[in-house]
Amino acid sequence: MENSADKTNQKQRGKPFQKGVSGNPSGRPQGSRSKATIATLTLLEGECEALTRKAVELALDGDIQALRICLDRITPTLKATSKPIAARLPAGGSLAEQAANVYEAARLGKITTDEATALMGLIQGQIKIKELTDMEIRMAKLEGNPLPNVSPEEFI
After folding, report:
1. According to the model, what pLDDT value does residue 12 have?
2. Per 3-state DSSP, what percentage of the chain is helix, strand, and coil (rounded to 5)?
């Protein structure tokens, strides 16, 4: 009899299906509707205007659920947006100096803490890129495979 460990090793782990390949190519055609959807659409046929008018009337009479439904249909979903930071920060200097400038601007109230956090994240990303570039150059030199003439400063 086969050992359960052998069965486990034989089973495929992770994602068993290839991306973009249907498990049932002869399944329901794209765009087809279920019986429930067809029945609902048949019942509502010709009633959409009256139902919409009723929902608006209920909303205007103070029905909170009807009001929510109407507003959900009228207003677009709010998306997070950001605006350019209005404060002028000193340009140039080392990344540590730039981080100190951001901190000082937040401390003095010239920028919000959210803006400071976003700027610090950008500086942190630049630091990471510089570290990785320096490491890549050192590794290439150790292995005797020099990289093209690209200095870390060109990335910053």
Report:
1. 59
2. 55, 0, 45
